[in-house]
Structures are given as structure tokens and as C-alpha cells.
From TrEMBL:
Gene Ontology terms: biological process: AMP salvage
InterPro entries xref list: Adenyl_kin_sub, Adenylat/UMP-CMP_kin, Adenylat_kinase_CS, Adenylate_kinase_lid-dom, ADK_active_lid_dom_sf, P-loop_NTPase
Domain writeup: Consists of three domains, a large central CORE domain and two small peripheral domains, NMPbind and LID, which undergo movements during catalysis. The LID domain closes over the site of phosphoryl transfer upon ATP binding. Assembling and dissambling the active center during each catalytic cycle provides an effective means to prevent ATP hydrolysis.
Gene name as annotated: adk
Keywords annotated in UniProt: ATP-binding, Cytoplasm, Kinase, Nucleotide biosynthesis, Nucleotide-binding, Transferase
PANTHER family: NUCLEOTIDE KINASE (PTHR23359)
Species per Swiss-Prot/TrEMBL record: Streptomyces qinglanensis
HAMAP family registered for this protein in UniProt: Adenylate_kinase_Adk
Residues annotated as binding ATP: G10, A11, G12, K13, G14, T15, R127, V137, F138, G200
Residues holding AMP: T31, R36, Q57, L58, V59, G85, F86, P87, R88, Q92, R161, R172
Catalytic activity annotation: AMP + ATP = 2 ADP
Highest classification ranks of the organism: Bacteria, Bacillati, Actinomycetota, Actinomycetes, Kitasatosporales
Assembly notes: Monomer.
Family: Belongs to the adenylate kinase family.
Protein's name in the database: Adenylate kinase
Positions of region (NMP): 30-59
Length: 216
């Protein structure tokens, strides 16, 4: 199966993508992973991306598209893939359409993870990260540390990342609404979109997603 996963920041796309990819035995292709792999391998596209990132500029669509195409052409993606974070705007969606047309492939589904905006803000702004080990993550409401401000695992200081502050989250949501959300309507015209509530336990959301895919 070939699936695109869409949703605002804080919707749990990465978590759901990992579960779905494992259940469906297809690779999880995430934009962040593409960038890291190309940069670490020193590919021409990775070098271009790094130039823009060092200058504090957005990586152009053509670079991201090139990375995504290269990954979709790898052997493990021959039987399908799950795209997470790509496409992120109409230009990228149109480029993906063109690539699939050229290769004689098609998308099977676009899963739209829906979360109320206030819940997104609560989820992200409540995160607290350990300064000693960033893999130790807590939440002031959903998974609080036993002692406020102190990591349960190693005793390190817990802090709120700049990206997780409420005003930053709301700006990220504005970008999502203006740039990424329009691709949902783009894919609705192709009859591919299923909207899924991303509220509740992770397993419940995964079950909804699997049911939506099996109905395709």
C-alpha cells in the first residue's frame, strides 16, 4: 500500500506512522529522516539542504522532492510506503502526483489525523525534556515527573524547548493551516482522504487508521 499521513503538529503522526508501517510491512518515509540520511551520507541533495539550513533558510521544494523520490525508488519501497511529512504543500503534492503517474503507481489512501487546536497546544506546550538525555520526555499533565522539574530516569533538569512554547506552537499551526492543510482538499478531489480522530489512546487511533485502510 502507498499511504500519505497528514495532520497538524502534535497529532501523533510519527507514532502512528511507525505502528502502521510495521503492521503493513512497508517503510516509514519521514521528511526528517530523509534530511538526516542525505546530510550524513553527503549526497548532492544533502549538501544543498545543509547549505540552506546553515543559512537559516527553508530547504526548497525541489530538494525535498528529490530526496523523497530517491527514497521511494529504493528496493524496500517497491511494495509500498508510508509518507510522513511529505508532501507538506500543494507544490510537493503535485510533484508526487507527477512522479506516481510517470512510474505507473498510485496512492491507496491519505489519512488525515484530526485534533482540536487547543488539544495540540496542550500536548506540545506541556512537554518537558531532560537536559541530560533528550530521549527522556515527560508531560506536565499526561505523564508528569514524580518531582517537578526533575527527570525520573537520571535526575537531570527538565525544561521546555523553545519550539514547544505556546506562542511558537500557535505559529506552527498557522503555517500548517496555510501550507499543508490545502493538500487535504487536493486529495479529496481524488477520493483518497479518510479523516480520523487522533484523540484517545495510541492503540485506539491505530485501530481507527487500520480500519480506514482496510476499507479502501
Amino acid at each position: 500500500m502507498r499511504i500519505v499521513l497528514v495532520g497538524p503538529p502534535g497529532a501523533g503522526k510519527g507514532t502512528q506512522a511507525a505502528f502502521l508501517a510495521k503492521n503493513l510491512a512497508i517503510p516509514h518515509i519521514a521528511t526528517g529522516d530523509l534530511f538526516r540520511a542525505n546530510i550524513s551520507q553527503g549526497t548532492p541533495l544533502g549538501q544543498k539542504a545543509q547549505e540552506y539550513m546553515r543559512a537559516g533558510q527553508l530547504v526548497p521544494d525541489e530538494v525535498t522532492i528529490g530526496m523523497a523520490k530517491g527514497r521511494m525508488e529504493e528496493e524496500d519501497a517497491a511494495g509500498g510506503f508510508l509518507l510522513d511529512g511529505f508532501p507538506r504543500n500543494i507544490a510537493q503534492a503535485q510533484a508526487l502526483d507527477g512522479y506516481l503517474d510517470e512510474t505507473g503507481l498510485k496512492l491507496d489512501a491519505v489519512l488525515d489525523l484530526e485534533v482540536p487546536e487547543d488539544e495540540v497546544v496542550k500536548r506540545i506546550a506541556g512537554r518537558r525534556i531532560c537536559r541530560s538525555d533528550s530521549s527522556h520526555v515527560f508531560h506536565v499533565e499526561y505523564s508528569p515527573a514524580k518531582t517537578e522539574g526533575v527527570c525520573d530516569v537520571c535526575g537531570g533538569e527538565l525544561y521546555q524547548r523553545e519550539d514547544d512554547r505556546e506562542e511558537t506552537v500557535r505559529k506552527r499551526l498557522e503555517v500548517y493551516h496555510s501550507e499543508t492543510e490545502p493538500i487535504i482538499d487536493h486529495y479529496k478531489t481524488q477520493g483518497l482522504v479518510t479523516t480520523i480522530s487522533a484523540l484517545g489512546a495510541v492503540s485506539e487511533v491505530t485501530e481507527r487508521a487500520m480500519q480506514a485502510i482496510s476499507a479502501e
